[in-house]
UniProtKB/TrEMBL annotation:
Molecular functions (GO terms): exonuclease activity
Domain Calcineurin-like phosphoesterase as annotated: residue spans: 1-218
Complex and partners: Heterodimer of SbcC and SbcD.
Domain of life: Bacteria
Protein's recorded name: Nuclease SbcCD subunit D
Amino acid sequence: MRLLHTSDWHLGRSFHRVSLLQAQRDFLGHLVETVRDHRVDAVLIAGDVYDRAVPPLSAVELFDEALHRLAELGVPAVLISGNHDSARRLGVGAGLMARAGIHLRTDPAGCGTPVLLPDEHGHVAVYGLPYLEPALVRQQLRAPRGGHRAVLEAAMDRVRADLAARPAGTRSVVLAHAFVTGGAPSDSERDITVGGVASVPAEVFDGVDYVALGHLHGCQTLSERVRYSGSPLAYSFSEARHRKSMWLIDLGPGGDLTADRVDCPVPRPLARLRGRLETLLTDPALDVHRDSFVEATLTDPARPAEPMARLAARFPHVVHLVFEPERAPEAGGQSYARRLRGRTDHQIAADFVAHVRGQGPDDAERAVLGEALDAVRTVEAAEEVAR
């Protein structure tokens, strides 16, 4: 049986306020083409279909369109809810949609009830474990203690119990949305730490033929049978080096497995540039990034004038600006109070401007600071008299 493993679509998300709706539409078109061209038997979507619990209408319409296209191909899909999704909203109409081959698994109570996919070698039992928030599902799953590991172990106990009651040779697949130990995170995943612990060991999933993971945005292999597909698009500059893809999984009659990556379309590459502004504006080696989304980290000792506008003239898609000025180290070993001792309010204010901007105030700015400080003193004096 040939399975296509994807996750973390985050429909409705933008990239530094730039809409990604068309890029997400292009990806879903690519997914449908992959299903058709590679003769995929079922699609596995391991959570975070949407970027937030109440997605915008445009994202809902995009999701609806993708499901209709898969249903028209006659290819079943199994979806679970992720930590960004509203499980209740995503799961509306699950019973009716299952008749069209779209199987939504958003209720933790259904962890041990698989979708059975038949082929010439028997059945593949696909179990959907939606994101399990420990505080909300512990009692429902009868987990002996709190935490991600305990609730996932309780869910997998149900999976193994059901699988043990099925005919010998039944192959098994688990979809789960979790942070599994050994996975590499990025800046764009929402923190799911509980009690100081976010990750669970891969051994929790022992006993099944394939584990299709969602949550982490980098495509990665934790073991031959435990993999993250990653997000199809980059959602932060920390993903600049990611190769965005899906897993094409062939599951043989005895549970033997082969996996191949199918690359996703890249709407616009990411570039993280660092240096002084004039260097970024003039270095010919940076011409290759003209059409990239750009994050620029400026190292000028003093903050340049209008840096974003000047960068945008060369890099039209610059979306993020960071200042990390290269400065001589400040005098260490002195307390803040000692550094201020003997200095006037005017000098302290001027030092603060120099610290933030990289250079002190000019004459006009000093005059404004002086007027502000004088006004404060006048108000304080009036209040003192009033007392």
